[in-house]
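Researcher: Sequence recovery benchmark, item below. Answer with residues only.
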């Protein structure tokens, strides 16, 4: 039997550094301003019905995968 070593808990500053590195690798700008994120994409759908159709499509594909 092989003993498994539990992962070490990361400190908050280690988590922040890791997330910043991942964001940089993916070409995403780091932001710590939640207000900047709110409302992003609000103009992706012209109507609530278009958004509802999009979400229903996602739900159906997930259901079909199971």
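Model:
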């Amino acid at each position: 039997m092989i003993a498994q070593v539990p992962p070490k808990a990361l400190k908050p500053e280690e988590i922040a550094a890791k997330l910043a590195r991942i964001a940089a690798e993916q070409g995403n700008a780091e932001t710590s301003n939640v207000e900047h994120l709110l409302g992003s994409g609000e103009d992706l759908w012209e109507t609530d019905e278009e958004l509802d159709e999009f979400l229903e499509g996602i739900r159906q594909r997930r259901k079909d995968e199971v």
